From TrEMBL:
Stored PANTHER family: ACID-SENSITIVE TWO PORE DOMAIN K+ CHANNEL DTASK-6 (PTHR11003:SF326), POTASSIUM CHANNEL, SUBFAMILY K (PTHR11003)
GO cellular component: plasma membrane
GO terms assigned for molecular function: outward rectifier potassium channel activity; potassium ion leak channel activity
Keyword Transport attached: yes
Entry protein name: Potassium channel subfamily K member 9
Upper taxonomic lineage: Eukaryota, Metazoa, Ecdysozoa, Arthropoda, Hexapoda
Species annotation: Polyplax serrata (Common mouse louse)
Length: 101
């Protein structure tokens, strides 16, 4: 294998490894917090339903009126795939900016 090919392959492997490690770090840091937040929102929902004797349908109407959308019901966002995407975004936006004209 040519020396240049080895360098290129090494760079690709290092970059991919960097992305995997970054994704694992973001996943490890963000997932527990997001799970706790989701559980907290569920507890608040149960408390409101119990306190005001609301049905699930009534609560859904209240939630829709107050929020106008339902972002916390989108599911967990910080899974490994999302963290990998974020790490890729960070990697591709870091660098020296040059305009060549």
């Amino acid at each position: 294998m040519k020396k240049q090919n080895v360098r290129t392959l090494s760079l690709i492997v290092c970059t991919f490894t960097y992305l995997l490690v970054g994704a694992a770090v973001f996943d490890a840091l963000e997932s527990p917090t997001e799970k706790k937040r989701c559980e907290s929102l569920r507890d608040i929902e149960k408390m409101i339903k119990t306190k005001y004797n609301m049905s699930a349908e009534d609560y859904l109407v209240l939630e829709t009126v107050v929020l106008k959308y339902e972002p916390h019901k989108a599911g967990q966002q910080w899974k490994f795939a999302g963290a990998f995407y974020y790490a890729t975004t960070v990697l591709t936006t870091i660098g020296e900016y040059r305009t060549i004209f």
